[in-house]
Specification:
The protein has one domain: Rossmann fold (3-Layer(aba) Sandwich). The chain is 42% helix and 15% strand. It contains 11 helices and 8 strands. The model has no long low-confidence stretch (mean pLDDT 93). The structure holds NADP nicotinamide-adenine-dinucleotide phosphate.
């Protein structure tokens, strides 16, 4: 019976995935890692009501990805061994996406890269991750560019220095947008790209585990739109994402949660080291991105560079 830890489990796709996982016979217990204890408790009560599982089936730990101190405390608070780790928490980061955290990391990279990486590394080091654990990192289609919001990240091969500039707030390469507010989406795209490369490298480093980067796909009716720049929110981003579902450009959170479930439970659909995202720009079948963009997702040098940059920043 698997012990599953889900980050960002109190709402959105993370919450719905917990609800679906609770219905699986193979699930032994679920740990909800959230940054707000009241929200975490509220989610547990709702899960108990909606799934019929007893309260003891669920537990909570506090986790704020924008603080490495909080990540370390979270690792210490996890009891027992985690069989399945769903690194779902993340987001766009809003207008202050480049503001530095107390650890000197941009908000957007802390939310989408270093927090999840530090949690993974911390659990490994504390021997709280099962030797054959399944680890899924929430990536996004934006990691491969999503014109006109952001373009495909360009890293020079093995360019650890370039990646570091993104993590610490002075994007020094491959970063260019004409409209200032578009910077947010560009930063978010780079963050998800670096996170994806980091977890691809982790898959190579830990061959007994199954480690996959997967996008839940363009999903309406979550709080994700609240992280877009104010100007995009004023233009009704949340409504626009919902309207996009009528032309096959977004889907409901339950569809996104099912995508996570397939990746978590169906090993043959989601081999270790892959980056799975929609076949279309926003939506579509979940497919391996490496054959389409080998320069990014089948590039060992780039994966190693991302891992080196991230590890250096979280070790400080
Ligand atoms: N929605 C989409 O179209 C889409 C597409 C591709 C990828 N994704 C990715 O899918 C994941 C889930 O997105 P969603 O749409 O479900 O978004 P959401 O409704 O905004 O949920 C995000 C979850 O992450 C948590 N979180 C945010 N910042 C955190 C931090 N610093 N520390 C700990 N937890 C934090 C949130 O906690 P609070 O409740 O406390 O804010 C919330 O539980 C994200 O990684 C997102 O980037 C989403």
């Amino acid at each position: 019976m698997a012990r599953i830890l889900v980050t960002g489990a109190n709402q959105g796709i993370g919450y719905l995935t917990c609800a679906k996982l609770a219905s699986e016979a193979s699930t032994g217990s679920i740990v909800l890692a959230c940054r707000d204890s009241a929200k975490a408790q509220g989610a547990v009560q709702k899960l108990v009501r909606e799934t019929g599982r007893p309260e003891s089936f669920f537990s909570t730990v506090l986790l704020d990805l924008t603080s490495l101190t909080s990540v370390r405390a979270c690792v210490a608070a996890v009891t027992g061994s985690v069989d399945v780790l769903l690194l779902n928490a993340g987001g766009i980061g809003g207008d202050d996406h480049l503001m530095l955290t107390p650890d000197g990391i941009t908000r957007v990279c802390a939310m989408n890269v270093t927090g999840s990486a530090a949690l993974f590394e911390g659990l490994l080091e504390a021997k709280k991750l099962a030797p054959a654990a399944v680890v899924v990192y929430a990536s996004s289609e934006i990691a491969r560019g999503m014109a006109p919001f952001s373009y495909m990240p360009k890293f020079a091969a093995a360019d650890e220095a370039c990646m570091t500039t993104h993590l610490v707030g002075q994007p020094g390469c491959g970063y260019f947008r004409l409209l200032p507010f578009m910077k947010v989406m560009n930063s978010y795209g780079y963050a998800k790209a670096i996170g994806t490369l980091y977890f691809q490298n982790a898959a190579a480093d830990h061959p007994k585990m199954r480690i996959v980067a997967a996008s839940p796909g363009s999903t309406h009716s979550t709080s994700a739109a609240n992280g877009t720049p104010k100007i995009m929110q004023c233009m009704g981003m949340a409504t626009q994402m919902w309207l996009m579902s009528f032309v096959g450009m977004s889907h409901a959170p339950s569809v996104a949660a099912q995508r996570y479930l397939d990746v978590l439970l169906l090993a043959d659909k989601a081999p270790s080291g892959t980056f799975l995202a929609s076949s279309g720009v926003f939506e579509g079948e979940l497919v391996d991105q490496a054959p389409w963009y080998p320069q990014l997702w089948a590039n060992r040098q780039l994966q190693q560079a991302a891992a080196a940059a991230v590890k250096k920043v979280i070790a400080k």
